[in-house]
Amino acid sequence: MAEERTFDWASGLQLLGSLVGVLVLIGVSVAGTLVISLEKGEWFVAVSTVQTTSLILFFASLGFVGILLIPSVLYAAKRILGTSSGKEMSWHWAGWLIVLFPVFLGLGYLADWETGAGRFLLAISHVSANGVAVFWILNLGRKGLPKGSAQRFWGVFGSGMTLAPALALLFEFLLLVLIGGIWYAYLVQHPALRDQITHLVERLPQSAASPAILERMANKYLFNPGILASVFSYVAVLIPLVEELIKPLGLWLLMRRKLTPVQGFTLGMVSGAGYALFENLTLSANANTWTVVMISRFGTTAVHMLTTGFVGWGLASTWSEGSYARLAKAFLTSVVFHGVWNGLNILGALGQFSGAREAFGPFGYWMAQYAPVGLFILAVGAIYGLLRSNRFLRRAIMSQVE
Description:
By secondary structure, the chain is mostly helical. It has 17 helices and no strands.
């Protein structure tokens, strides 16, 4: 008598969630692009060419994310129907992707987004360059390691690309509201400062056309010690804490599967790659600064993959071996690395204001001026960390075989 096959609820949820994501993201992408392409109505008269092109890049990004969810739908469906082989396809070709990155980067740089054809070329270059960069770096970290099932790969990648950014954005917004509430309570106790800020907000619309006035306002209020502390605490501490907890969302969903540490690191990188891809696609969707942001996001991608890989390694070590100390060390390392990266970014941005020299002091101002150098070193360090971790895990696998 044939054994009755039970329904795989995990695959069912993966299929449903991925299918909804495909339909919503591609639907919004197509609808938004069509509306912009028509360019009818008074709203479009007030929108500049740069803004229109940036919106096209954004909607193209949503469509690309939707397309990348399709493998998750297919493999989950195959598992439910009992036709899946369970093995992931070979990725040996991914090492050549780096050759395509400068090609798409150059095409995007040369694209004339004053024309429809130019916008289309930039949109293709945008999604292609981001995809190539993410999958190439991911291949560096996964090369030679056990690949596992295709369904698990695309499921973890999809959750990292869609659910994790949504949850991270939600919690980061709630933290921002909390910080705003603390400042509101402080201003209630200091009416003079409250009146100054109210006056500042009222003047902003009239001062928006004058960079000099805006900079004077920034120098006066932005470099207030309390505001600086709030900004750095939020960007360099709270955001890394939230994101390093949420980025490995795909692993949290596999908590009962007793993953090995190697699987934890590999799937952590996969989840981090999905998160990085969504972040890169949306944050680099600015026609004015596209080329510069695209190059800078290369380092951010490696940072996201490395830190999420560490956390995934720690989580799997805890679930399979009960090593809570390893999880604590991995999580703390990831948060610190991510926090330094974010801190240097905000330090470099604030260092562009004239008031930074007095507010930061000689050493702080020097650090702000050389923040791009620090970011470059961290980006190279992240790629080196992926390669070194890969080598360490491969040796660990070989020693177990011997």
